[in-house]
Design a protein that fits this description.
The complex is a heterotrimer of chains A (226), B (215) and C (386). With 226 residues, chain A is of the alpha+beta class. Helices cover 36% and strands 13% of the residues of chain A. In chain A, the strands form three sheets. In chain A, strands 6-1-8 form a three-stranded mixed beta sheet. In chain A, strands 2-5-7 form a three-stranded antiparallel beta sheet. Helices cover 22% and strands 33% of the residues of chain B. Chain B contains five helices and nine strands; from the N terminus they run αββαββββββαβαα. In chain B, a hairpin with a 2-residue loop joins strand 4 and strand 5 (85-97). Chain B is flat. Chain C folds into two domains: 6-57, no CATH class; 65-385, Cytochrome-c3 Hydrogenase, chain B (Orthogonal Bundle), CATH 1.10.645. Chain C is 49% helix and 12% strand. The chains are: A alpha+beta (226), B alpha/beta (215), C alpha+beta (386). Chains in contact: A-C, B-C. The B-C interface holds B 25-29, 31, 57-61, 63, 65, 104, 106, 110, 113, 116, 118, 134-135, 137-143, 150, 159-160, 164-167, 174-175 and C 1-3, 58-59, 62, 64, 66-67, 102-105, 228, 230-235, 244, 246, 251, 314-322, 329, 331, 333, 335-336, 343-344, 346, 348, 352-353, 355-357, 385-386. The complex binds iron/sulfur cluster (2 copies). One iron/sulfur cluster (SF4) binds next to helix 3 of chain A.
């Protein structure tokens, strides 16, 4: 019978129409500015720089190693290394970025900068309402706008941030333990130096020099470029 | 599927005069290819398509590659007698390979479900010209047009050889390795001072337009 | 070749008598046309309403993707592949990752392979759903079916978002595995959506497949013979709608597809209706693959630890890797000269090559049919123009 297929289709339309008032999985629209769907944990938008503590300058984790600048596919990161050094979260003096700009009109939210950063310094934001009134300067995010506290990071990515904190704490503990071991070795060596036969020309063979010279620790490996 | 050596032998028997070389591929993919000469390309292609044991009826991917002039340095260790003492000496030989353009065809067989066999054809960078395989495989139609557009290889016997992605008035071939984008996309040559300076540095290095133009 | 086939079609009597017999009018369809799926233009010569000549015009979205790929490194090219066919970024990622893995001989952990299959089949589901919606919208069923399709598609995109961080530009796979692991909640959520999907499919099939208008608009429209389809390099659902049994998942046995049981649907007539049905049937098979994958997936690592993502330098050589993307054979041809970026980076775009025979399919049909035929090819301009 001609028209039966159309009638069948119309029945589907009717079911959907009625269902959109009653059934949970047909009720899909939300009235956006008033109502919002929660963003998933992994949602990413544009990069931010994480700092520990309260001071964005003192706590900034970024050490201006420029790896992210090199790896960013559209080359939208611009970094200038500082002249002086400031202590990082482990107390080691490190460089910091004097200038750190990201052109978010070019950034394509690919997350490669986050993946390659060896210092857990750059992470992805979840802020998506970013309309600006100007095309050029407003879309160039400066270090001041990019710096976000670790609490904010915990707020937007709770699971990931907890993992990062754990890794960093482990790395710091490992570094601490190493330092202690090295110090112990130094004292041990100092006490036993009288009867030990030292190998001339091979000072690197002593455990002290090796463990002090290497800063590598699990989770936080130093960049090759630095 | 037959090995490339067998295919090569059979092509040489079927198409008299065809020059076939096997190009080795050192990567773990081990997709070696056949280099065929331009004069017999269409006959070889027809043989590959129609031979009952091969039946490469599906030409999947057609693309161009630009190779600039290269120097391959080979170091060979030899023993030589220097001042009466035998010594290991590294002999460095340099081989100059003039630049060329290449068209690469990836063939599969839908009838026998095997493949790929890769064939490639080479031509000089000036006056680049190859015979079109569109009469054999229709799928090459748009892809050869794309090669013509981006690499500037003229395909003889192509039914409708026009620019495809760039606009018709565009001169130059953007996928060639020595292509320089215009210093200012809106005005060329550009009126701005610093851009003009940059342009001056760039333009002498470019090959002249008549050199690049096919035909 | 196009000349002979167009002559044949010209000899066939036109389906409608036209008033302007013998007089050709040139019309430019597009580039800004709601039914050209992006910025695509066709120069059409019309006799009355009958198409006598059709020349597609490309390049409005051309950005020389291949050159960008050659100037970026191997890792840097990955997020750019998302932008090819922006409906199916997961399969684009996979095709590229597969080619690099072939080029460098990289192994992929088992769980990553399963995740890839799950994501590729989910991509196929959402691509085909939205295609059906668009196709109906091209036929004049404005809005309603498209909105139903988008409602379901959105659920799958939400899954992608919660796994990779973005709905469409996923940038999820890496050579040697996947970027992040999926947790159990994600798998459970995906399973729930897959369980509910057949209900939607039944409903959607009720809505369209017996509809007399759909049948009248699609059956015997835009026929494609298997011989021409093979010669023109048509791949994917379009090739199978013409009755050619060629599915790269079965032929190349990439990934873990040999471990799955699924059938390859085939069409009989190669017309637009078959192409439409093909998508509906393929979705059913995808659902069965997904169910098997959820049953088989085991915990484990998702990334090969030996692969260096940064400063990745494959050995000198070349490789062509291809997968069955929702639109057809998506291949990447890479030549490495041993440096950190590919010497040649080529994308074999299925929707571009599937457009080769657009003219052959449209000759002798009306302008309104051209839109339906174009819709059934399933093109995305980001991939056509690259
Ligand atoms: S890679 Fe990390 S530490 Fe290095 S410059 Fe970038 S954000 Fe800073
Ligand atoms: S997200 Fe990607 S594009 Fe954006 S700054 Fe990071 S690396 Fe660059």
């Amino acid at each position: 019978m001609i028209g039966a297929g159309i009638a069948k289709g119309m029945a589907v339309t009717l079911r959907n129409f009625v269902g959109s008032y009653l059934e949970e999985d047909r009720l899909t629209t939300v009235q956006y500015p008033e109502e919002r769907n929660p963003l998933p944990e992994n949602y990413r938008n544009f990069p931010i720089l994480i700092f520990d503590g309260n001071d964005p300058h003192a706590g900034l984790r970024c050490v201006a190693c420029k790896i992210c600048e090199k790896e960013c596919p559209p080359q939208c990161i611009y970094i200038t290394k500082s002249e002086d050094k400031k202590p990082d979260y482990m107390g080691k003096p490190q460089f910091y970025p004097a200038v750190f700009d990201i052109d978010i009109s070019v950034c394509m939210s690919c997350q490669i900068c986050v993946e390659v950063c060896p210092f857990e310094a750059i992470k992805m934001d979840k802020e998506f309402e970013l309309s600006k009134r100007e095309r050029f300067n407003a879309l160039l995010e400066r270090k001041e706008q990019l710096a976000k506290s670790n609490e904010y990071y915990h707020h937007i990515h709770p699971v990931e941030a907890a993992q990062v904190d754990k890794n960093l704490a482990e790395a710091a503990a490992a570094a601490e333990a190493k330092k202690k071991a090295a110090a112990a070795a130094t004292t041990a060596k100092a006490s036993s130096v009288g009867d030990a036969v030292s190998v001339p020309g091979k000072p690197a063979a002593s455990p002290t020099a090796q463990s002090l010279g290497s800063t590598s620790s699990p989770g936080v490996s130093p960049p090759a470029a630095n | 599927m037959e090995t490339l050596e067998q295919i090569k032998k059979r092509i040489e028997a079927a198409v008299p005069g065809a020059k076939i070389d096997i190009v080795n591929n050192g990567s773990p993919s081990a997709q070696h290819s056949l280099k065929i000469d331009n004069e017999h390309a269409r006959d070889v292609a027809r043989f590959l398509r129609d031979d009952p044991a091969l039946r490469f009826d599906f030409c999947s991917n057609v693309t161009g590659v630009d190779w600039l002039d290269r120097v391959i340095k080979k170091t060979v260790k030899t023993k030589q007698v220097v001042d009466g003492v035998e010594k290991d000496v590294d002999l460095t030989s340099e081989e100059k390979i003039p630049g060329y353009l290449e068209a690469v065809y990836h063939l599969f067989s839908i009838a026998h479900k095997h493949g790929p066999v890769i064939i490639r054809m080479q031509t000089g960078r000036a006056n680049a010209q190859l015979s079109s395989l569109t009469p054999i495989w229709r799928s090459a139609e748009l892809q050869e047009r794309e090669i013509f557009d981006l690499y500037g290889i003229k395909f003889e016997g192509h039914p409708d050889l026009r620019r495809i992605l760039m606009w018709d008035e565009f001169e130059d071939f953007p996928m060639r390795k020595d292509y320089r984008p215009p210093d200012d996309f809106e005005w060329e040559p550009t009126p701005h001072d610093d851009v003009l300076e940059r342009a001056k540095q760039h333009y002498p290095a470019r090959p002249t337009e008549t050199e690049l133009k096919p035909s | 070749m196009s000349a002979t086939s167009s002559q044949e079609l010209e000899q066939a009597p036109p389906r409608m008598s036209s008033r302007l017999e013998g007089e050709l009018m040139e019309v430019s369809l597009g580039p800004q046309h709601p039914s050209t799926h992006g910025v695509f233009r066709m120069n059409v010569a019309l006799e009355g309403e009958i198409v006598r000549k059709l020349k597609p015009v490309f390049g409005y979205l051309h950005r020389n993707h291949e050159q960008i790929g050659e100037s970026a490194g191997y890792l840097q090219a990955m997020p750019y592949t998302d932008r090819l066919d922006y409906f199916c970024s997961m399969t684009n990622n996979w095709a590229y990752a597969l080619s690099v893995e072939k080029l460098a001989g990289i192994e992929v952990p088992e769980r990553a392979e399963y995740l890839r299959i799950i994501l590729a089949e989910l991509t196929r589901l959402q691509n085909h759903t939205s295609l059906l919606g668009f196709l109906l919208s091209d036929m004049g069923a404005w809005g309603t079916p498209l909105m139903y399709a988008f409602r379901e598609r959105e659920k799958i995109l939400d899954l992608f978002e919660s796994l990779s961080g973005a709905r469409m530009m996923c940038d999820y796979m890496r050579f040697g595995g996947c970027r992040v692991d999926a947790n159990d909640d994600w798998i459970a959520g995906a399973k729930k959506i897959v369980d509910l999907f057949p209900k939607f499919l039944d409903e959607f099939e009720d809505l369209i497949l017996q509809n007399e208008i759909v049948i009248a608009r699609t059956q015997h429209v835009g026929k494609l013979s298997p011989e021409l389809a093979i010669s023109a390099g048509i791949t994917g659902p379009m090739l199978r709608a013409s009755g050619v049994n060629y599915d790269i998942r079965k032929i190349d046995k990439y990934g873990f597809y040999p471990r799955f049981k699924f059938r390859v649907p085939l069409g009989d007539h190669g017309d637009t209706y078959d192409r439409l049905m093909m998508r509906a049937l393929e979705m059913r098979e995808s659902l069965s693959i997904l169910q098997q994958a959820f049953a088989q997936i085991q915990p484990g690592p998702v990334m090969n630890p030996k692969v260096k993502i940064r400063a990745f330098k494959p050995p000198v050589g070349e490789a062509y890797g291809r997968i069955e993307a929702p639109k057809g054979e998506l291949g990447f041809y890479l030549i490495s000269d041993g440096s950190a970026n590919p010497y040649r980076y080529r994308v074999r775009p299925p929707s571009f090559i599937n457009l080769t025979i657009l003219e052959d399919m449209c000759l002798g049909h009306t302008v309104a049919d051209v839109m339906v035929i174009l819709g059934s090819i399933d093109i995305v301009m980001g991939e056509v123009d690259r």
